[in-house]
Amino acid sequence: MTRRAAVRALAHYLPARVLTNDEIAAQSGLWSPSEIEAKLGVRERRLAGDGESASDLAAEALRRLFDKAGVAASDVDWLVCVTQSPDYLLPTTACLLQHRLGLPKTAGALDVNLGCSGFVYGLGLAKGLIETGQASALALVTVDTYSKYLHPEDWSTRTLFGDAAAAALVVAEDGERDRIGPFVWGTDGDGAELLILRRGGAKRWTPSADAEPAGRGACLHMDGPGIFAFSLREVPKACEAMLKRAGRTIGDVDLFVFHQANRYMLEHLRKRLGIPEEKFVVHMATVGNTTSSSIPIALEAAEDDGRLRRGMTVMLVGFGVGLSWAAALIEW
Amino acid sequence: MTKNEFLREIETVVEAAPGSLTGEESLAKLPGWDSMAAIGFIAMVDSRLGVVVNPADLAACKTVADLVALAGDRVQD
Question: pTM of the entire structure?
């Protein structure tokens, strides 16, 4: 028997404030509520409240995870926090969470600055730490509050993104087969400008905030067509490389859970790859695009509605800001 | 695909009346041309012609004829 990393449980937390298509339609005057849902597949999304930050959302997702998995915070020996909206540039959000949740001081903790590909990267790190004996029970939390970065009148992003946190408990188990992996990785920093937040980093840092970009330039910039074209170029190639590496075919995979970018893109990718509709999870109508949390939230929803069952082979594909992408097979 | 067939596909993307586009239209003045239509155009070219349009080239297009030109020799007169 070999030490294997496996996902034992998933949980998530959504902030209370709901932004509906009715509100967006009334404020923007651009589309009807049904047009927004038809184009994006999103009916409503959740927004963090004033003063509510990534560590608040992540802490609640982690508490729910520990309850669900029946573990105590003291049992967790590693914490990986995937976020692009940390409470502070420093210290690391994972360190704040270690203290807040009462994880042991002997635990390792770090943040991963990735968006829509981040959950799959987090699983890769978890597998490495667990299977080399460095961790036994790793909490992987994904969290973003992109809503704070959005310009009030940028309807292309405000219709799409929702705030959320999700958490997965990855544990060591004895087994003959890989439960997580293999992986395919991808990075292309040439597309950095397609999805970027210029404010807040150290590149233009001065003691005065005056040197920071202001107005729309201070907000998240998304080139939707550019991101779409990138996804069409890279996601099918990553899926094919994944299947080749694993020696499998599309028909061998029981369920496909892609980053929930928008329904239009997901549907196009599904058809392009020849994936049957019943094997392809779309779960974004009530949450929107929750960046790194979209895959674990969709996985949990599929488990809750019975589509995801233990023993199934599942393909996960994350892709977006960076540009960064990753695919993995997991045995649930 | 012929140029006329391609124009009909673009009409579907921008939700214009069938047969209404000639190629001379300015994208800036075309009511249905926005970022979602640009995404729809990329999806249509990928589905129908099997090629992913370079989004920088797409952003440089000024007219419907420029969109047709992006398809190169995959679209014939």
Answer: 0.95
